Amino acid sequence: MRREVLTWSDVDKLIDYLVPQIRGRFDSMVIITRGGIVPGGMLAEALDITYILTASVRFPSDFPGMQPEMVKYAIPEFIQFPDEEVLRGRRVLVVDDVWTKGRNSVTVANRIDAAGGIPEMCVLHYKPSYSLYPGYAPTYYAAVSDAYIIYPWELDRGPEVLGVWN
C-alpha cells in the first residue's frame, strides 16, 4: 500500500481547505478518539466551537477471529460517549482524521442522531474505495486518498518504528 507522510504544514493546508466548506454554526463537536483529537482541536479553534465532547468506539472485528464478511455488521462497544442530554437538539460536528471503512464516523453520527442531535461528519482524508458504506460519505473532507496516511503526530510511532515496514 502506498504511504503518504504528512507534515504539520500539510495538515494546516487541509484544515484551511476544510474551514470554508463548513457552513453555519455548530453547537458542539464530538471528536472521535484517538484520530480525531488533533484535527478536532484545530477545527474547534478555527471554527470557534467551545463545546467539545469525545467518543471512543471499539468494534469486535478489531480483534482476531472476526470473519471478514461480518465486519460491516459488527456491533460496536462504546467505551466513551456523551450523554443524550448534551446532544439533543444540537447541531454537532463529528470529527475524525480519516474515513477508511467509515465505521467510526457512521456509528458515532447514528448514535448522535438517535439521541436527537443533528450530526455532520468531517475528516481530513476520505478513502471511498475502502468504505463499507457505498454512496455514503463524510459531510466535509479535505482530500480523497487511497494511501496509508501518516500524520505528523504519528511519526514517532506506527509501522515504521515497530519494524513492520522495512
From TrEMBL:
Pfam families: Pribosyltran. Residues 11-129 form the Phosphoribosyltransferase domain. This is Phosphoribosyltransferase domain-containing protein. PANTHER family: HYPOXANTHINE PHOSPHORIBOSYLTRANSFERASE (PTHR43363), HYPOXANTHINE-GUANINE PHOSPHORIBOSYLTRANSFERASE (PTHR43363:SF1). Coiled coil: none annotated. Gene3D superfamilies: 3.40.50.2020. Keywords: Glycosyltransferase, Transferase. The keyword ATP-binding does not apply. InterPro entries: PRTase-like, PRTase_dom. The keyword Transferase applies. It comes from Candidatus Promineifilum breve. GO terms for molecular function: glycosyltransferase activity.
